Amino acid sequence: MRMLLIHSDYLEYEVKDKALKNPEPISEEQKKGRLDEVLAVFISVEKVDESNPDEVVEKAVKEIKDVAEQVKAERVFVYPFAHLSSELAKPDVALKVLQKIEEKLKEEGFEVKRAPFGYYKAFKLSCKGHPLAELSRTVVPSGEEVSKEERNIALEKEEELKSYWYILTPEGELIEVDKFDFTGHENLKKFANYEISKNRVADREPPHVKLMLEHELVDYEPGSDQGNLRYYPKGRLIKGLLEQYVTEKVVEYGAMEVETPIMYDFEHPALEKYLNRFPARQYIVKSGDKKFFLRFAACFGQFLIKKDATISYRNLPLRMYELTRYSFRREKSGELSGLRRLRAFTMPDMHTVAKDLKQAMDEFKKQYKLSMEVLKGVGLTPDDYEVAIRFTRDFWEENRDFIVELAKIIGKPVLIEMWDQRFFYFILKFEFNFVDNLDKAAALSTVQIDVENAERFGITYYDEEGKERYPLILHCSPSGAIERVMYAILEKQAKLQAQGKKPMFPLWLSPIQVRVIPVSDDVMDYALYVAGKLEGAKIRVDVDDTNDRLNKKIRKAEKEWIPYIIVVGKNEREQNTVTVRRREDGKQLEMQLEDLIREIRQKTEGFPYKPRPLPLLISRRPKFRG
């Protein structure tokens, strides 16, 4: 059973039509309903619940009661909602479960209303919007047969863990999340709500999907598994530049680049144990009689390299890096959403061996700053993302000043998740999270201090006295998945567009940086000359040689977010100049071509370059969509 619990000012519904051939019989009075000051509980009864409906009812009532007590709700609205699951129970079982939940809640002293089952209904709801106002819960009968491959103890435990949520200010104040004044920090409030509710399902298409399709960057691939995408030339260019940029940053930081397999033996003792400590769902493949899993990070291969290496204390910190194309996680279908959450993704993954906690924390802080620098290069500043830092209560008490320093570095309040006891393999973790236009959050950069896997994999180093010791290991992705960086860039531009501002890619990432538009065929030779000079200077340029009117050509370039539009006519040819429309500030300038080249090169200095991904002449290009 899946439940979405929303603490609401009110919930009201009106029956519109039958959704099932034989829906629940109802009276005229039951066709409408409303409750004020209510805990709205949207429920999908699932096929798995059929094995023990009574147990599922008991567990569901307990969860609802616990949440109602937390939000101090005395009224509960039980609302059938099939959209939370794709594996629904039979209608007769689902109805009985919902009826029993209603009865049990009344016995617990709640005022209860239940919306009728088997109908299409219109509903209105006003969510209260505090951090505990939106929560999700999953209930399953005990004793359900789950295969060894599908069972993930870390995922199960993650749902059971009790988290304590706080906001930490740069001044060092630790404030319970429901007591923090979010005025001026509205994005942080959205992020806190998202994290606490744990509702990852995407109920609408995020704006970046429309943009990625309109710009012919990325598309869904109907011939593959969900969450696997196809990249058109412009999208492949952006993705490739991001891959190169992050890799260069990490290698410059001091990491050694390696390459490791994408599949591993499910029965390998160290790997099997790690699978149950990492909260991700695996893809399983067979080769002969053996089972393998597709990697969901570069940990496995890098750990096995380190195990076989001879490492001295003089080598530490030892940094190893791989850009995984691809990593695989079998995310739930309802959570898949454009570029935000995928089943196959490209993860820049660095692992650092540190001799002790002091060295590990020093590296943690450096990699925190590295992550800020990497995101700045793709056009994302601390105003665009929120910080989550996660640890146990003991770690906080022993390292309070260190955690506060992280908040000072970012210069704004951060979300804290604290546990009484450590379950995961890490003792400290941070993420930079982008909050999109649907108020969903997605982790970008992250670093974790791992205290378990050196011993699990047999990774050791020799200390100053020649003794073998187990190190600590830092897991770092300074950008997060490359696809998710593209998602964040597009979602940010969608926000700017909604504010009436001109969206654009960072100049170094723009698939076409300059478009040359000749006013007539008579000056096509000069347009091609200009394009040739720009291309020689490693600037991505194209020429609009279509028969469209000048204004239409300009509008088309604007729609494609071209940073520089050059219009050339007889005057420009005679004076050997160019007339430039600069998207960044909207200015129109007459320039020497050399000055334009110098300006673009200055703005893209230090970033990687790839040549134009499409033919020079627009008339020679295919249309990939529609």
Characterize the structure shown.
The chain has 626 residues and is α+β, with helices and mostly antiparallel strands. The chain has 16 helices and 28 strands. Strand 7 (164-168) and strand 8 form a beta hairpin. Residues 210-506 form the Aminoacyl-transfer RNA synthetases class-II family profile domain.
Give the total of beta strands.
28
- Radius of gyration, in angstroms, nearest whole number: 28 Å
Strand order in the sheet with the most strands: 8-7-18-17-19-20-23-16-15-11
Give the N-terminus to C-terminus distance in angstroms: 40 Å
- The gross shape turns out to be globular
> Which ranges are low-confidence, i.e. pLDDT below 50, for 5 or more consecutive residues?
144-151
CATH topology term of the largest domain: BirA Bifunctional Protein, domain 2
Total helical elements: 16
The CATH class of the largest domain is identified as Alpha Beta
Number of domains: 3
Quick summary:
This protein is an alpha+beta fold. The protein folds into 3 domains: 2-138, D-tyrosyl-trna(Tyr) Deacylase, Chain: A (3-Layer(bba) Sandwich), CATH 3.50.80; 163-209 and 237-489, Bira Bifunctional Protein, Domain 2 (BirA Bifunctional Protein, domain 2, 2-Layer Sandwich); 507-620, 3-Layer(aba) Sandwich (Rossmann fold), CATH 3.40.50. Helix 1 crosses helix 2, helix 6 crosses helix 12 (482-498) and helix 9 packs parallel to helix 10.
Question: Main traits of this protein?
Answer:
single chain, 626 residues, alpha+beta, D-tyrosyl-trna(Tyr) Deacylase, Chain: A, BirA Bifunctional Protein, domain 2, 10-stranded mixed β-sheet, 16 helices, 33% helix
